[in-house]
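Page 47, continued from p. 46.
Same chain as before, 112 aa.
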Amino acid sequence: MLRILPMNCYFPAIAHCSDTHDFIHIADEGELGEHHWHAGDRLIDGTGRVHVLSQGEGEGLYWRPLPGLVCLPELNASLRHFAAGLGICCIPKLTVRSAEEAVALIAWLEMQ
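Result:
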């Protein structure tokens, strides 16, 4: 169970699941409780802020903000891997120029 919700996270956002490498569109903070999270999952908002799900010894899961912004080349590689698993064509051309574009892309992919 989540003990602490992310601070300074702007929604919509995307979650990158550490165990499956899937992306999930998160429309608002309330939607965070609808998913089964694991330590190491990352939440990326449209401004590029990243929060990683951590767990302290004997404590519940909590979102810990990372310094800096998301690394776009790393994000693009992860998005290409995810899209390939969905059977999306033209994977090499898939490139986002911002975290905001990544959030919109995942929202669009979920509607397909």
